[in-house]
Design goal:
By secondary structure, this protein is an alpha+beta fold. It contains 20 helices and 22 strands.
Amino acid sequence: MIVGMEKHPAEIDRLQLALRESEDRFSKIFNASPSMIVISAVEDGRHYAVNGTWLQTLGYERHEVIGKTAHEIGMWVRPEDRSQYIDAFKENGKLRDYEVQLKMRNGDIRIFSASCDATVFDSEPCLLTVFHDITNRKKSEEALRQVNEELERKVAERMRELQRQVEETNQARAELEESERRLIEANRMMSVVLDSLPVHVFWKDRDLNFLGCNRLFAQSAGYETADQLIGKSDYDCGWRKQAKMYRGDDMTIIISETSKLGYEEPQTTPDGDDIWLRTSKTPLRNAKGEVFGVLGIFEDITARRVAENALEEAKNEAEQANRAKSDFLTSMSHELRTPLNAILGFAQLLEHDPRTPLTDGQQDSVNHIKSGGKHLLGLINEILELAKIEAGHLELDMESVRPHDVFHDSASMTQALAEKYDITLHVPALEQQCPNIFVDRMRFKQVLLNLLSNAVKYNVQGGEVTLDCQATDGRLKILITDTGAGISPDGLKDLFQPFARLDHEDSEIEGTGIGLTITKQLVECMGGEIGVESELGQGTTFWVTFPISTDIADLTSDRSDFDGHKLVDAGHRGKVLYVEDDRANLVYMENLFGRFANLELLTAQNAEEGLEIAAAHQPDMIMLDISLPGMSGTDMLKTMKSNGCCKVSAIAISADAMPYHIEEGLEAGFDAYLTKPFDVGLLVQELERVFGAIEVTD
């Protein structure tokens, strides 16, 4: 009796089923990997299998690469790159983290990290290569989302193919032996692929016990090999502290059959360190589409989180420093403006005192005092303006503005300065049809005045300044050209830096070196651009551009008239209460009011004293310093209003000159806000609004 060599059909079925399951698992891992994987011939680079990530990253279709060599596809940047790649592989028998440059289908070139192992495919020596795109690691998350759909399609397709093969074949011994060989090869290849991935990979059953993982995951869990983790749960891993949370996420995914991609979560390592992960999980399905577990991938993002936290702390520290700088400048402004008010005030009194006319020498000294005081005041104002812009506190009233109006005003205001320096001013811009632009009118005028005054001051004797404009590409370009000495290339580099005066520090030309810095920032805050062109000995042209406005609304200003407490009869004899803690400013105001025949000045050095004088004498007007010792001027005004005894005009006189200080003062109920040092003319204007004509004595 001869016993046949063929195995029992049941054994064949078992091996075939094992083969299919192995191929399914390999197919899932092969196609689900966020890294690029390719199986290609060693000698000519002919492609036998590529995963979806490879195709998606390089931009090819599968039929365009299968069976073709790397040179036919044109994926290598240089032909010799692949030769060097193969030489390195042959020298070591494998490759790890070998950097290469590959050309995408659209021509882009990206850098990849390649890990390569030898394998056999259809009896031919091949390379199993894993490419990791190190220019954009984030694409792995999107690849994970797509892998489930591709996985289901491939599983169903492969199952139908295997079923047809089983029905059409005679279950021969040769096929069984081939199936066994392929099963062993698939398991080995799956292990190689998993261990080559630079991310943690695991999969669990419905009871949330581990079915498998790659070596990196096992080591993070506290084990040497992946086999040691099979059958265990998260409670058996180094992250027991988060085990309940992890298992809750896994069960939600299994029950809902919905993926959860790209979320961040904490983890405690076996060494007790706290780290952060970026995790993606998706339902794991069998050939019938039934969910039998969960597949997960995560990477350590602790370094990125630390960098983000450090950046946030640095931002907070910068904001605190900025606020401290603003507070310091506000305080310095107040401390400088208060004595400066007395200096300029007494200088004006000396200059305009008809009872004791000044000699020529005294007048020259007073002029020096006024000039120095005004220069110091201008420096304070420009520093505050620059600090306000840098702190982001600049408020703009953007509107559609007719440039001709601002051109005319700016040229008129610059004319006197031009005559002083013997400069001829040309304004061809007024003869052009310029469209409206979208800017802040006041800031736009400030920009033009600064550029025009610089063109005059830094010109040559008898020179010329030209203001012109031209509309192009939806923007209006405004040009200010002078015939001065020009600016060197080195000087142009520092032109817009604070306090850079380009070798004019010791000249007689007044300036702080801040004006152009402020001008540049104002232009950019309004959505414009600024530039300069210069040639030594030929002159300089500054230009600014602003977007053309499409708003045709009425451009007239909507400013309301003064609504103070003006008395009906002109020339009214009245009382003015001035509350000021600085003695020099009190003396200055007493000298000033000594010339007003119809006005009596009452003074107090604190708010409490001022309230008593106001109640006893009932003044027609009160002038309050905001920063008084004890009760502030604002609080004094509120007290008078609450008592119902403040029915007169209230004027704030303060060294606090920041815009928000002025706004707070007006909102508190003051009819006007004069900043120190103030112009006598502005004070007289306020007095005339209340008392009518002011009688000035000789």
